[in-house]
């Protein structure tokens, strides 16, 4: 074997090893985490937070074509309270933050294809912009308005969870302030939406594995708390043990990535 041939083989093996196809499939609840559906603004340094409408449609269609049932938070709550199994192939589609593009782009696609989704909303930015971002690295974009949130909810296609009042790093706050961010956002969102919220997602995933912060999230009245860690969560879920893991969907992901994420919990090493 020539040096060049050996180098090509080693390169191919290294590239293959970067993906997780060779890992054993793992069981558990699959929760996909999206952010923005659309095209990133010029100069964005966070392009992987954007998934194009075309790609999102293809991904949702892939789920449906491969027999996945898309769940709402209320479906998960019913299974949890009844200690009943989930459908063999099921997935929660979630979106963080509450962008207007979820209303303009994601919701019509889900509605048309017959799929369900769930949005974690930052209360203080409803009808405003994603003010926690530094516009030097990520341009501010519009957030959904109260009327848009209620319209999506009334369709039966979208349900909501909390993503705090202002999207802070919870571990950077005092424990009392972190607790207020979680509890007050639940109270305010329930008033605006007219429905009880059972789910919470930690901004940046920060605080999800802090016993003190996580205890405050559960004390606030949430049944489910979601991390930002890649992976799948065993079902039945050990609620006191740890939050529910999610699978971050990047704008650069392919269908091959999605297939591996669904089966292995993550696609790339």
Query: How far apart are the termini?
Result: 29 Å
| CATH top level class name | Alpha Beta
Helix count from the secondary structure assignment? 8
Specify the CATH homologous superfamily.
Glycoside hydrolase/deacetylase
Q: So, CATH architecture?
A: Alpha-Beta Barrel
Structural class: alpha/beta
Number of domains: 1
Overall shape: it is globular
Strand composition percent: 5-15%
Element pattern in H and E: HEEEHEHEHEHEHEHEEH
Low-confidence runs: 6-15
Rounded to an integer in angstroms, the radius of gyration calculated over CA atoms is 19 Å
CATH topology: TIM Barrel
- DSSP strand tally: 10
Q: Would you kindly provide a written description of the structure presented here, covering whatever features stand out?
A:
This protein has one domain: Glycoside hydrolase/deacetylase (TIM Barrel). Helix content is 37%, strand content 14%. It contains eight helices and ten strands. The strands form three sheets. Strands 1, 4, 5, 6, 7 and 10 form a six-stranded parallel beta sheet that branches. A two-stranded parallel sheet has the order 2-3. The radius of gyration is 19 Å and the shape is globular. The protein starts with a helix and ends in a 5-residue tail after the last helix.
